[in-house]
Amino acid sequence: MNINKYLIFLFISIFLINLVGSESNLCEGNYISIDLSYDGNFSVLNKTLEKGCVPDYKHFAGFRYSYNLTGKNETIYSADFNPTLIFSDGILENFTEENISGSVGEMKTEFSIFVPSTRDAENVELYDGDLKILEINIYDVGATSCRVS
C-alpha cells in the first residue's frame, strides 16, 4: 500500500513539473503590441515586438469590435475589444429618467491590442461587426537590417 501512495505521489509530481514547464515555455516567445487611438475612428500610433506571454483577452467576448491576426489566407488569432466608454456630464440629485442632465459622449482614448508573433503573421484586421475597418501590416515589426559585407 505504501508503494502505491509513493507511485501516485511520483506521478502527480512529474505531471505538475511538466505542466509548469510547458506553460513557462509558452511565455519565452514574443508578441506584438499595437498601440491605437480612438476618437470615432481608429489610427495606429505604434507597433512593437515585446518579449513574454501574449496577454489573452479572449474571455472578453461579445464586444462591438474584433481583430484577427491573419497570414497566408488564414486566421491565426482573434479577440474582441471595445475602447469606447460612455459617460455623462452630470446627474441631478434624486434623479429619475425624466431629470437626468448632461450630455453623453464617447471618450477619446488610446489603448493597445496584443497578438502572438509568428512566422506566418502578416496583418491584423480590425472589424466593426462584419465590416473590416482597418488593416495593419505587422510583417515588418521587429525587423532588423541586414548588413552585407
Describe the protein's architecture and organization.
With 149 residues, the protein is of the alpha+beta class. Helices cover 17% and strands 41% of the residues. It has 1 helix and 9 strands, in the order αβββββββββ. It has a 4-stranded antiparallel beta sheet, with no helix packed on it. It has a 3-stranded antiparallel beta sheet with strand order 2-1-7, with no helix packed on it. The protein has a two-stranded antiparallel sheet with strand order 5-6. About 5% of the residues have low confidence.
Summed up, what is this model?
Helix content is 17%, strand content 41%. With 149 residues, it is an alpha+beta fold.
Write the layout of secondary structure elements.
Blueprint: H1 2-26, E1 30-38, E2 42-51, E3 65-71, E4 74-81, E5 86-88, E6 104-106, E7 109-116, E8 123-128, E9 131-137
Antiparallel strand pairs: 1-2, 1-7, 3-4, 3-8, 5-6, 8-9
Name some characteristics of this structure.
alpha+beta, 17% helix, 149 residues, 41% strand, four-stranded antiparallel beta sheet, three-stranded antiparallel beta sheet, 1 helix, extended
- Total helices: the number is 1
Q: How many DSSP E strands?
A: 9
Mean pLDDT: 75
Oligomer: single chain
Main structural class: alpha+beta
Shape: extended
Low-confidence stretches: 19-26
